[in-house]
Amino acid sequence: MQNGRVNWRETLRHELTHAVTLLGTNYRIPHWLTEAMAVHEQHSDRPYNWDVLLKTSVRLNRIMPIGKLTRGFTRPKTGEQRMLAYCQSEVVLDFLIQKCGRKCLPALVKAFREGKELPQAIQTVTGMPLAEFEKQFTAYIFGVVAKIPVLPKVTPKDAKTIIDLAAKQPHNAETQCNLAILLLVQRKPDEAAKAADKALKINPKCAEAHHIKARIAMAARKEADAMAMAKLAIAADKNYAPAHHLLGALAARQNKTDEAAAAFREAIRSHPQFPKPYQALAKIYKDKKQDDKRAEVFEKLLRHTSNSFGQAVELGRHYVSKKKWKDAARVADVAAGIGPFYPQPHIIAGHALWELGKEDPAVHEMEIASICAGDTLKQMEALYRRLVAARRQEQADKVQESLNEARKETAGNNLRLAKAYLKRGDKKKARTAALAALDLDPNGEEIKALLRRIK
Asked: Can you give the pTM of this predicted structure?
């Protein structure tokens, strides 16, 4: 789950994998390994928030021993540790596949089905004791994390751990960067800058330290200094996505939209799961009315993220407006996998499939849209009333605007559905659908004309 939304297709693959691995081992597979295989079979990129969690956990020595990974699921100390258990388990499986190939997966299932415990199963599949496997995995995960271009996410609760690590490893640039980030969180920019300087003294090519100093300068509205520091970060590591994003934000502030767009594109290239540069780049193209370029941004976003429902819907509507029916149907299918109970993907799919001459699936999608729309419109109307009652008029106005658009879109769907029923000779259903459209759009002349035809 990301941003409160589930990708149902990935969820289905995930849960089916559980069924296969649990039944295939007579329920003897370790909890962490069935979760790792289930995540692996989702066939999606590791989410950005998992990258941040992984980086933070390695930096703060929170990685769990493989033999105790199951506790992260069954007895997690925090919600974050449970999420780390998912993330780390997937990385362990990636390491296994790198060492032994995908053939290791059925071999592991077989080993557990035969009653082997984890140490014996690992020995059978990899040819090495669990202790040696764990040692090599630790080196592997440190290498993976070193290539993830994100800042660790620290909180004041991490202060003791970070301060202790910096004291124990005073000549480690990463521990000094951890300290600098903590001091930033504590709103101590001068001390944060000193810690970043210490990191740079240890490693002059530490992109993270340059980036931290750029953020300090940007917060102080020293934009020229911030830009210089961000460029130093990129010179140290051309794939350091946060610095590219910061450069883009600085250029956008100065209305240098071409420079900003180029920087945001570099941020996306460097870290395709990083959501902020997509949003910023899409806004630039929206302001410039470059709809085709904006569509390209959303296409790339959908390839690298699992839960971008709003962008998928917007992209589908773009293709409908351009009469690119095949693309509209394809993207609507993606959106329906994320939000199957919302009407928008089904409205887009119904329209596109109808134009492609696929009448039966088109009618099916339009019918689903009509059902889903009823609940969605009621929820939006209730939200509007609550906001008005709470005297939050500005938010209420925005909901009213969205509600009007939703009514118009649903009326269009019901009108197309009425036409489809009429073409099939079912006047009763055609009339019902047309009346539903008229209820949402009382001034719709095309709807009124269709009702006259039905009579």
From this structure: 0.89
